[in-house]
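Sync notes, pocket subgroup
Present: LS, DG
LS reminded everyone that the earlier model was apo-only. Rerun requested with NDP included. Inputs:
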Amino acid sequence: MTLTAADFPVELSPGTWDVLRGDFPLLIDGKFVSSASGAAGVTHDPATGAALADFALGDAVDVDLAVRAAHKAFGGPWSKLSHFERARLLRKLADLFEANTQVLAELEVIDNGMPMWLAGLTARNNAELFHYYAGWAERIEGTTTTPPAHVLAAGEALTYTLREPVGVVGQIVPWNVPLSMACLKLAPALAAGCTVVLKPAEETPLSAVVLGRLIMEAGFPEGVVNIVNGDGATAGAALVRHPLVSKISFTGSTEVGKLIVRECADDLKKVSLELGGKSPVIVFPDADMAKAVPGVAMATFFLQGQNCMAGTRIFVHADIYDELLEGMAAFAGSMKIGHGLHADTMIGPLISAKQKARVMSYVDEARAGPARIVAGGKAPEGPGHFVEPTIVADTTPDMRVVREEIFGPVMAVQRFEGDDLDAIAAMANDSDFGLSGSVWTQDLSTAHKMAARVRSGHVSVNTHGAVGANIPFGGFKQSGWGREFGREGLDLYLETKAVTVAL
Ligand code: NDP
């Protein structure tokens, strides 16, 4: 690639140029290699369309090599490391992350399109995540008990439990927050003692390659982490089917999640899934409007709405409906749209022309009525896959814009009346999904009663999507299986073995 400074609106740091001028190989068995077939893909800046880099595109052959390397490592020196040594490696990786946040953030911005303020934040959060799971690595412990008398007489036996790593794990991540998705899966898996084959999304391959370099620099033994860029239907599917893989951890569309479950039924691989969402945001008449206006708007527009926990079904009490709509329309209109490298950008591009067309199909359908578009609704002319932050008011529960995950900056607003919390919850829960949600009120009783009634894995009060390393996150209903982050995130990668000893 012959990229020059003119391809970007802001000067990139020298470290990012060093990365861009280098190769983007696969990481297999501790070595950076081309794909076996020699195939390569090209990744583009979604804000400009500029080609950024060629990257090695793996297929089933590379996946097989990576899985075998992970399998060998699982039974090799990695399995002999103590919990404390694993923790030390994770902390070293966290330190390397901290030292490289600017480069990692810039790569995320140009490969994915997210605004720089967000990329910087997520890069730093990833360092925190490795520190957090280093702490858990040191605290993996079982329990002791005595078996019941019908098994062995009291005082004659002892049972204890061991927490053992699941084995080789296949991790498949999407393009919407590429580096964070990889880190939030890798950190607990490594803390637990698993070995990993990571498949990043084909749309956003760059940051994972740098992640691989940092992992090797931190001193992880060869084969413990293998990274195979490649497309879902070949590399992803090969990973899911591989008999030496004991568990698949997937984040992405509900459709592919279901496909993976069917595939894994054959050999009963463990599966955890973080899938789509269409999360409710419920605004009561006593909400603090100064906080609710930007807070509810950002629940939808954060990350251009390409966010599984986005709050996109907004239920607003009739008493404040017009006031909130007006405030949010003004907020949406004030959001700076542009290249993520600009410090004041709030809305970057969507990931691809395909995603832009998909999002605009929902907006155009809503435009036909009877709903009203009160903000945005247009896709600025190219280059770049931009869509304005869009508010669709007066929607009804049957509309596609209300029922389906759009994965773009499109908010669907509905009005409600009265104060019957069960009736309000029934509206909010009228969805196949159950990932996130938020409640906006200054009344403690309403807040807690409503949080309890929302059928989602994560509910915020007077804020939205407050996730972090120590807060379990995952879905009810078709939003997924299992919880990531926190102790639950570690448990996904551990088996429990009970050992009974006759004394
Ligand atoms: P996908 O579910 O297709 O992609 C997610 C990951 O799965 C990618 O790494 C992809 O690879 C991989 N993949 C795709 N097909 C298979 C397969 N058969 N076996 C194994 N892995 C596979 O999401 P899309 O990128 O197509 O996005 C479509 C929609 O999905 C979005 O509009 C949004 O609604 C939803 N989505 C939800 C996300 C979430 O966080 N919950 C994240 C991303 C999307 P590759 O892309 O390289 O082909």
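DG: The chain has a mean pLDDT of 97.
LS: Residues 116-137 form the longest helix (22 residues).
Action: DG to write up.
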